[in-house]
Fold:
Amino acid sequence: MIAAVTGATGHAGGALVRALRERGHGVRALVRDDGRAIEGLDVERCRGDLGDPASLVRAFAGADVVVHAAAHISLLRTDVRHVEAVNIAGTAAVIAACRAAGVRRLVHFSSIHALEQRPLDRPVDEDRPLSDERPARGLPPYDRSKAAGERLVREAARTGLETVILNPTGMFGPFDFKPSLFGRVLIALANGRLPAIVDGGFDWVDVRDVAASAATAAEMLTSGGQHGARRYLLPGRWASLAEVAGMVADLTGVPAPRWAAPLWAARAGAPFSTAAALVLGHRPLFTGVSLAALTNNRRVSGARAEADLGHHARDLRDSVADTVRWFADQGLVVAREPAPGRKRSSP
Structure:
């Protein structure tokens, strides 16, 4: 099997490229700039840009399946143009290029944010409607763009493109070269640079487990999958930020933040901390969008993915440990002596 992968140099894409190569599949990795995520891997590199349709057609030609893992993740309500250009127009360009190149099979990375979270008292599953079906709620641009992109893929499926849609929860893990939001939180915790956390949590899933399920989805399509879009939720486990901070503290010996700000207080301060981060040229960790996500549905059903794709989420503590150790290997986490009386597992 030859798989063409968009976003191959991103976190999820890089993990997927590794999973496909470990299974002996050929990979054509679309590369636009920073290629550290696939450095040293035996893959075919191909110049590709979502804004250049001709480059996509060239990259997809002869592939058995296209895996669309490219996306722009944003925590800002003002970042409309970029998320729409990548997550909506880019998805439309991938679909058009699949047709022009004669590729009839597509695995599309969507997101748990594309799905309606309410009612909160019932688990989110594959039957949940898209989150933008109630536009008056003022969804963040990222959520709206992922829902719109998924709708494009569904429409393509109705007109003959064989598709699988994957909706992972909050991905994190090793090989996070351009540290993700949660990766930056782990780095800050491990370095003792996060004075407080927020009283909330999310469903976190190891990017390696998502990649394994995505590779199985690609194999399933190339072996003659059914027509129409098939959606799979790929969860891990819900954990509060306080619980995660405790895991990092146990691993590194660096004390966890003593204060967990209530969400109402964090929301009140979010506009100021966001503005300050942007003025300094930093990506803000906590914005109104990210704080709202910490109140999402705690229960996400992975039953369908487990049955069809063999999706399995490893222990969250192991994932946190592997990730912090990887960041330490990259020089992003500074080794410290544990506090008196506290034992530390080497990162």
About this structure: Residues 146 and 164 are 15 Å apart (CA to CA). The domain at 2-173+206-236+298-314 is CATH 3.40.50.720 (Rossmann fold). The two ends are 37 Å apart (CA to CA). Residues 269-280 have pLDDT under 50 and may be disordered.
